[in-house]
Amino acid sequence: QVRLVESGGGLVQAGGSLRLSCAASGIIFSSKAMGWYRQAPGKQRELVAVISSGGSTNYPDSVKGRFTIFRDNAKNTVYLQMNSLKPEDTAVYYCWTYHVRDNWGQGTQVTVSS
Predict the structure, then answer these.
(1) Where does residue 78 rank: exposed (0-12), middle (13-18), buried (19+ CB within 10 A)?
(2) How do beta strands 101-104 and 57-58 pair?
(3) In degrees to the nearest 10, what's the CA dihedral of 37, 27, 23, 108?
(4) DSSP state, 82?
(5) Could you read off the pLDDT of 23-74 as tens digits, one per residue?
(6) Concatenated DSSP letters for 89-102?
(7) pLDDT band at residue 83 using 50, 70 and 90 as cut-offs
(8) Torsion of CA 76, 85, 62, 48, to 10 degrees
(9) Which residues pair with 101 in a beta bridge?
(10) Radius of gyration of the chain (CA)
(11) Helices (H) and strands (E) in the chain, counts
């Protein structure tokens, strides 16, 4: 059974930073692509960052240069470092991986005040 547990969300002022963590179990972590998505109220869930098993990363333009995804295979954990946060980054952030089907964490709230 795949389990993804996020942590690290919170309230931060615009321009600040947060680091999210996602601890994974039930998968061979090092062989899996991992990602972060977010969903703001009234909006669709959108991709924020993805990292392949080999370490390649991809970001949408909205976060490129501000967010960094990285992984520690020894700890079965993927991270999202978020810098220069903006109020429009406010959302629930979800950890994702694909194993048999899409798997999601419970989400962690990130609120950026102006």
Answers:
(1) buried
(2) unpaired
(3) 30
(4) E
(5) 999 999 999 999 999 999 999 999 999 999 999 999 999 999 999 999 999 9
(6) G-EEEEEEEEESEE
(7) very high
(8) 20
(9) 99
(10) 13
(11) 0, 11
- Residue 105: both structure tokens together: 């964490």
- Whether the CB-CB separation of 49 and 37 falls below 8 Å is answered with no
- Token pair 């429009």: residue: 88
β-strand partners of 24: 4
Q: Which two tokens stand for residue 86?
A: 């903006």
**DSSP per-residue string spanning 46-82:** EEEEEE-TTS-EE--TTTTTTEEEEEETTTTEEEEEE
How many whole angstroms separate alpha carbon 83 and alpha carbon 69? Answer: 12
The answer to whether 92 and 107 are in contact (CB under 8 A) is yes
Q: Which of 112, 100, 91 is nearest to 17 (CA)?
A: 112
Amino acid at 98: Y
